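Exercise 7.
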Amino acid sequence: MADEFIKGLGIFTAGGLGWMVLASWYRTSSFESSQQLIESVSAGDTLFDALGVMLMNGLFWFTILGALTFWVLIPMGRQARGALRDRRAQ
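Solution. The predicted structure, written as tokens, is:
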């Protein structure tokens, strides 16, 4: 179980850091405002801005779903498989 935890933590850390870097570029108009990282995405006029916003959204969902998979879904599946195996053995 420790390997699933560290894999989920690695995904959460790396994906979260990537998202925060991109969000600070595209979702923060001013560092004096209280709406940092949660503003609407600033309009990007170039292809690189569009790719950055797309990568930011992808990293967000990768972080959430990756951590959820390794911390909840895989252990839950192993518990269910073990319970079914024990039930068949009886």
